[in-house]
Request: fold
Amino acid sequence: MKRAVTNSLVFIAVMVAIIALNLVFYTESPTEEEYEWNGRRSTYSARLYGTRAFYILLRDLGYHVTQFEEPLDQLREHADIKALFIIAPPLPFSVEEFSGLEEWIHAGGHLVIIDRKTDWIIANATIHLSTYPKQWRRPHILQPTPLTAGVKKVQLTEFAQGVKVENAPVTEHIGDQGRQMGDQGGSVLTDFRYGQGRIVLLGEPYIVANNGIGLLDNVVLASNIVRSLPDGVIAFDEYHHGYGLASSAQGGIVGVFLSLYAYFKPTPVIWIVGQLCLIAGAWLYSRGRRFTRPVRLPEEKRRRSLEFVASMANLAQEQGLRSLVLENIHRSLKRRLTPSDGSGILMRAPLSRAGIDQREIHQTLLIGETSANGNTMSDHELIAWVKKVRELEARLGRMK
Reply:
């Protein structure tokens, strides 16, 4: 009964704690609203401005795509990655990442940058993205190239940026074009070679975004860019969208859990899991067993030894078992005084050491034997005889 009450109180306390935590900590966090100019372009995002549709399209078309959640200077450790997409990253790049990225491109990697705010110095070229004039929202094709094959019109936004490349290294490569699409004074799509690799620049993420890839020939242009890449794994940079930061700092299983925490942090999943764990802990506590050996509960003795003796004596007296009592006491004393060979002769040595006269023993045994055989004995005489027997047993016991 006590355990059931305890379990009920624990369960009620857990539920109260959950309600209190929700009231104290859960607030409607003012999340920043997304617009075209600040939309999150991650391949994990299925919102209007994300690039989840583009990623799934490539995967369904049979391309080997992956979401890269490591610093870019780790690209050299992944020999299977041949191309990398960087789409409007909100986080900055480190010097080590720029250096590692440049070495990776020079060794044969293909980099596709789709952004409106890029101002990089890569491969000895200063890449500027400037505001594209409004009358150029639908730029015409400058010249036919593999990147513009099948493209008639593309849908851009007023935030589309023109791409300007300065001091780009020139290598002999047939079919390479400096500008692919645009108008005089700049282009929205540019590519150039560096070492054994190649860099493609696109100044409008709307072309590959979930809300723009299906308009006009945007999907054709995006597909042409992918087809121009070498065979191998195509990676999408998610590290600079905030994914993989925790797992990069902590390795192993700890990094995995931290990465999952970072992924679900903007959602109520963390609270749901925490509350389920709290409820599960309360249930385990209420249903749990001991972690050590079982110990019996202490039980108080219902009767003392003297009360037990008194009860047995009263029972023997009421049932007329006096002769049985005399016989048992007489037999016990005689067993202690005679050897175990069954001769029935009293042992003299123990008696002499105890200072007991043999005649005293014979008399005591004779009284008990005659009484057990039917001679009556009063209660007073019985008590006196039993005391005499216990006294002799005590004297014999001290001589052991």
Observations:
- Residues 170-179 have pLDDT under 50 and may be disordered.
- The beta strands are 65-68, 81-87, 110-114, 119-122, 125-131, 161-166, 181-183, 186-194, 197-202, 233-237.
- The two ends are 54 Å apart (CA to CA).
